[in-house]
Write a structure and sequence with these properties.
Number of domains: 2
Radius of gyration: 23 Å
Strand content: 15-25%
Distance between the termini: 53 Å
CATH architecture of the largest domain: 3-Layer(aba) Sandwich
Largest sheet: 7 strands, mixed
Number of helices: 10
Length: about 375
């Protein structure tokens, strides 16, 4: 059994813990930004393959206390890197710190890189090349006030990169954040779902994958664990085959999308079409303030515009009361979930949220507001 740490958008840690439990892992510890857990290698592969919430799955390879930079160099030098991956693999090192007294993360990053290369040179007479843009192996260092933990990345490219989205519009959501918002909304496959501000279709594509039991990592992307020495090819093939056999055929699934922008609708069409999922979703252009509900009841979910300038904030302040009126008029019987960084939303909409969840879109603090719509006033 090995120790791992899976990262995710802040606010989604309990959902990530559920994913990790479903993969058969144990000793789960939820912390801000991720979950520590213990698993065998098939369990690690399953988290990478099936978790819709994880960003990366990191394998813990060293841990120790430090007081100065040389202590971190020694910890990295004492780690048997040549038994973990081949010298022919290109390398990148990233370091994150919380309350570390050391002054320069760039210098720490360089020292860890030097230690890895020095260990290879001492053991094998060769060293890996550094590639900061597209490395085959990623080493992650995490510093607290007095400890350093070193990880090898088993994911490679971030897991939210499903390989489905080719065309984007302004400010798209990461796929794992969209998947988490869908789960927090209470939506389940079979329930009508409508995204009236679909952008490039991230909510829609995540919902379609959930409805058809498509594993998020089964789309042909590569993983970091495939470049490690202990990669179990036959085990991975069995897990991937099982995931692909579980997929349901594409067919309409009561999932609707629309956007005021024809460019956004075309981007969503292109992304779903490329993935072979266009037949599952009904798309149209339309204004959320005027559009009719596509079913008597269901879940409406929307990523609202972010007010980045004062003029934008003024426009949103005028938009929110009209949005509240439209939802009451057109979507009685629906559960509406609105994702925004603007905390004025409920007051300006003149609606009381039944649920509000703190989430982060990158570094931006946001809320997911849930409204159970009834006809007329909603006091």
């Amino acid at each position: 059994m090995e120790k791992f740490f899976a990262t995710c958008p802040r606010g989604l840690e309990p959902l990530l813990s559920d994913d990790i439990a479903a993969a058969g892992a144990t000793d789960r510890e939820v912390v801000s930004g991720g979950v520590h857990f213990t698993a065998d290698w098939p369990g690690c592969y399953r988290v990478n393959l099936h978790s819709r919430i994880a960003t990366r799955v990191l394998w813990r390879v060293a841990h120790g206390r430090y007081a100065k930079e040389d202590d971190i160099y020694r910890l990295a030098l004492d780690t048997p890197w040549p038994t973990r991956f081949a010298a022919e693999r290109s390398l990148r090192v990233d370091v994150v710190a919380v309350r570390s007294p050391l002054k320069s993360l760039e210098f720490i990053t360089l020292r860890i890189k030097d230690a890895v290369c020095d260990r290879f040179r001492a053991d094998q007479g060769v060293r890996p090349n550094v590639d900061t843009r597209d490395p085959e192996v990623r080493v992650h260092g995490f510093l607290t006030a007095d400890t350093c933990t070193l990880y090898l990345d088993t994911s490679g490219a971030p897991l939210y990169q499903r390989g489905l989205r080719q065309k984007t519009v302004e400010a798209p959501l990461k796929e794992n954040l969209a998947a988490g918002i869908l789960r927090l909304s209470g939506w389940r496959p079979g329930t009508p779902l409508f995204d009236p501000m679909c952008g490039s279709g991230t909510f829609l594509s995540e919902a379609v994958q959930m409805a058809l039991d498509i594993a998020p990592g089964a789309g042909g992307r590569g993983f970091g664990f495939q470049r490690l020495r202990n990669f179990q090819l036959e085990t991975w093939k069995e897990l991937l085959d099982a995931a692909q056999e579980a997929e349901k055929p594409a067919q309409p699934a009561q999932i609707w999308g629309s956007d005021l922008s024809p460019v956004a609708v075309r981007a969503t069409l292109a992304n779903l079409d490329r993935a072979g999922l266009l037949s599952v979703v009904a798309l149209r252009s339309g204004d959320l303030l005027e559009i009719d509900a596509p079913a008597p009841t269901g879940v409406l979910i929307a990523n609202l515009p972010y007010g980045e300038r004062l003029s934008d904030l003024d426009e949103l302040a005028a938009f929110y009361p009209r949005l509240g009126s439209a939802l009451k008029r057109k979507f009685a019987g629906w559960n509406c979930h609105l994702f925004t960084s603007d905390l004025r939303l409920p007051k300006l909409m003149r609606l009381s949220p039944g649920k509000k969840t703190l989430l982060f879109n990158g570094a931006i603090e946001c809320r997911l507001f849930g409204f159970a719509m009834v006809a007329g006033s909603n006091r």
